[in-house]
Amino acid sequence: MMIIMRTNATQEQINIVVERVEKNGLRAHLSSGTERTVIGAIGDGRPVQLDQFMYLPGVDRVVPITRPYKLASREFRPENSIFPIDGVKIGGDEIIIIAGPCSVESRSQFLETAFAVREAGAHALRGGIFKPRTSPYSFQGMGEAGSEILMEARQLTGLPIVTEVMAEEQIPLLVQCADILQVGARNMQNFNLLHAVGRSQHTVLLKRGMMATVEELLMAAEYILSHGNRRIILCERGIRTFETATRNTTDINAIPVLKSLTHLPVIIDPSHSTGQAAFVNAISRAGIAAGADGIIVEVHRNPAEAFSDGGQSLRPEDFSVMIQQARAVAEAIGRKVAPPSHNVIAPTISHITKAEA
Length: 357
Ligand code: PEP
Ligand code: MN
What we know:
Strand content: 15-25%
Number of strands: 15
Strand order of the largest sheet: 7-8-9-10-11-12-13-14
Bound molecules: phosphoenolpyruvate, manganese (II) ion
Largest sheet: 8 strands, parallel, barrel
Number of helices: 11
Order of helices and strands: EHEEHEEEEHEHEHEHEHEHEHHEHE
Distance between the termini: 56 Å
Helix content: 25-40%
Radius of gyration: 21 Å
């Protein structure tokens, strides 16, 4: 249920309500909006007497949250959740672009791609060091050795890093070298992992499972939110359908649907949703037109040589075109792609010319 405080409720009155919530064995989650505080009281479904909260001082009204996901719902928090990722904010009017290779393959591959995407206007850098692969014989990622490369790329480019976490035991390492932990499609319902990234209090990029409904995605986000971690970005990355012409089918509907059901930012991944570089630009334009708050896209300095997902990776020059068109579409709908973040540090590509391959 939600306990909606009056606009003039005092902190002391809020504290008293929180105490009462906890005394009933429920967990209190505060949402401070522009006008009033709402206290989400979440239990395990066992009945609780509502009228004991209704007449506490400062309480306006008590209403149930009808959706199965509580903290993720717009009922609980009508305003968009907006939070910073380094120099830029996600979830507001500005659209952010995350770009980089599917996998970190070597120092020079990652750093060169990193500089190229920064040059084109990306706001964050992606690259996996732990890769979920269908075959155990495919490249599984550089593992721990790749973490140094992620850290160096962050330091040299000033861009925040997005990287995938596949298991709880990787979290201590990844929170050192990444700003955003990606929970991939295959792990969207790995509930132990969801609990663990929730506890980490690190920003999470939660990708929709390829066979998951929108509601299941929101329930997965609820796991993370239940630990008080509110920095979650949802990602539509295509679902499995009967169609085989593309790797997945971009569920473009999911973007406005998610935006209506949740306050969390929603981005689109046109790389995995199409599986083919030739269609990535069109689908990123569609995603922005549909209301996405950002794009995550695979870019490789030489896609033909990529260890994973080369066929869907853009060359840096294609990415430049993509970002320009993204800007035009954003403007057409009254938004804009965020300007490059200000904390860009001076080093350029010349700093890595001596990098080993
Ligand atoms: C990825 O981002 O490289 C990836 C494996 O994504 P997904 O989990 O969406 O397949
Ligand atoms: Mn990939």
